[in-house]
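User: tokens in, sequence out, please.
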């Protein structure tokens, strides 16, 4: 279940109540007239079945409530109520398969922002992957995979392409186009300092190592990226976020970026090219698979994208 909270101008309140009272997926309706101060209006609350949320949000946005008032939605972990149980049973569809598109747009828009935290996490993940390459530690590489924040912009890019939200596409492309070069430059600088300090030399890349899978490009690189992208988007659209951890440790985006940085500093240009190709294949495979998943779920769309601009930042 989801907790829906609406601030409605008084002249629109009856229309909002009509939408909520007539929809089988809404219950626990509460009205507090004049309770809202900024923006001023009536406060309306309800419990909504997840599979009904997209339809109700579309109806409320068509009433212009998102501009004249406000709409918030948050998950409810526990709801002990026969009325809530009936709402979930009566709402069309299944909660696990329901996509709340406005929630997805907001989430991916937030996670694709180019900010200090994103650059810090991406840079640390690349540095950690470089350490894993240098000390030949697959465990450290896995840690870098989990730490990397790159799936947010990749998911945002897929969502933006499928729903023609070019503001989201631009934000995601900027985060990727700026984030990876900055993180790789910082990793290259760290590698240069470590090499100059005598901590390692070119022997760390010669011969066979347990972490060679990071730069070795083959059919499985694309297969894994496609499967991970599909699983990641399914996790995001079905509210099964725990599955995202499996996505993070499946693809070699960040490790490939870290490996490329190390290879460039040590003059191993063949491995630099291969690891860069690995990075590109993973990025394209994830975005393509995520977009395909969204296209396959097009039948679940019950409302048009209201076209709200993304928050600044």
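Assistant: Sequence out:
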């Amino acid at each position: 279940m989801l907790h829906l909270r609406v601030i409605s101008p008084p002249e629109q309140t009856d229309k909002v109540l009509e939408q909520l009272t007539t929809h089988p997926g809404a219950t626990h309706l509460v009205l507090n007239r004049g309770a809202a101060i900024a923006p001023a209006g009536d406060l309306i609350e309800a419990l909504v079945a997840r599979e009904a949320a997209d339809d109700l949000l579309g109806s409320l946005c068509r009433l212009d409530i998102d501009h004249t008032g406000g709409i918030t939605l948050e998950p409810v972990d526990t709801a002990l109520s026969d009325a809530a149980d009936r709402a979930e049973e009566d709402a069309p569809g299944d909660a696990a398969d329901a996509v709340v598109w406005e929630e997805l747009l907001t989430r991916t828009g937030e996670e694709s922002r180019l900010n200090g935290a994103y650059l810090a996490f991406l840079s640390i993940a690349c540095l950690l992957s470089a350490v894993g390459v240098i000390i030949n530690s697959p465990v450290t590489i896995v840690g870098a995979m989990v730490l990397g924040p790159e799936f947010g912009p990749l998911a945002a890019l897929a969502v933006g392409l499928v729903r023609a939200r070019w503001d989201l596409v631009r934000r995601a492309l900027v985060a990727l186009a700026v984030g990876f070069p900055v993180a790789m430059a910082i990793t290259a600088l760290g590698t240069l300092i470590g090499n100059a300090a005598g901590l390692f030399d070119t022997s760390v890349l010669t011969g066979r190592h347990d972490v060679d899978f990071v730069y070795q490009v083959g059919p499985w690189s694309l297969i894994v990226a496609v499967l991970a992208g599909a699983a990641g988007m399914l996790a995001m659209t079905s509210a099964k976020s725990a599955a995202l951890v499996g996505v993070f440790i499946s693809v070699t985006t960040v490790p490939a970026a870290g490996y490329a940085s190390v290879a460039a500093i040590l003059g191993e240009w063949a491995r630099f090219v291969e690891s860069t190709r690995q990075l590109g294949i993973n990025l394209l495979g994830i975005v393509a698979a995520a977009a395909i998943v969204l296209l396959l779920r097009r039948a679940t769309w019950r409302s048009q994208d209201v076209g709200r601009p993304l928050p600044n930042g």
